[in-house]
Amino acid sequence: MLSLAGAPAGAAAAEKRPAKPAAQKVERLACRLGTEDSHARIAVEVLNGRVNHFAYYSKWKPRTCSMEVTRGDAYSRWADHGSTTTVLLREEMGLFWIDHGHGRYHFTFSDIDRMRYCGMEGKLNGYLTIRHADPKCELNGLMEEKPVAE
Fold first, then answer.
1. Distance between CA atoms of 126 and 87, rounded to whole angstroms?
2. Cα–Cα distance between 58 and 65 in angstroms, integer?
3. Residue-wise DSSP of 60-74
4. If you write DSSP's letter for every residue of 17-47 in order, what string do you get?
């Protein structure tokens, strides 16, 4: 059994205080690409170097596509593997791979259910890259007029 009888008063007081949580570094990034009638944009919250939340929105006038995913929510399952994070959407609605490093976050959209998030048939597949201090996104495949064939 450990006795504090011989310990200085400060040591006993320090033992009663809860440990301070580690400081958390939060970054918020956003980018957009396109015109007012046809564009894609994403907002990303990064917590301690890992994506914690993202919201994607695209517009093909008159249609819109919108999704918001948060680590720990009831609609997704997140797993980190080195510099890659996988996000599996519940109910087989699709999968994201997020590769991070070198001042950028590269999102791969894989078989995201267009009906659920965009109100149209097909699957959403493609890439979006957001970079620190760059208001323009890099896109490939996400703004296709026709859904990618299944």
1. 15
2. 5
3. ETTEEEEEEEETT-T
4. SPPPPPP--EEEEEEEEE-SSEEEEEEEEEE
Interval 21-74: pLDDT, tens: 678 899 999 999 999 889 999 999 999 989 999 999 999 877 899 999 999 999
CB 31 within 8 A of CB 41: yes
Rounded distance between C-alpha atoms, residue 36 and residue 98, angstroms: 27
The pTM (predicted TM-score) of the whole model is: 0.79
DSSP per-residue codes, 63-130:
EEEEEEEETT-TTEEEEEETTEEEEEEGGGTEEEEEEEETTEEEEEEEEEEHHHHHSSSSEEEEEEEE
Measured between alpha carbons, how far is 46 from 132 in angstroms, rounded to an integer?
Answer: 11
Q: Which two tokens stand for residue 145?
A: 């007029």
Domains of the chain by residue range: 23-140
What sign does the CA torsion over 137, 104, 52, 80 have? positive
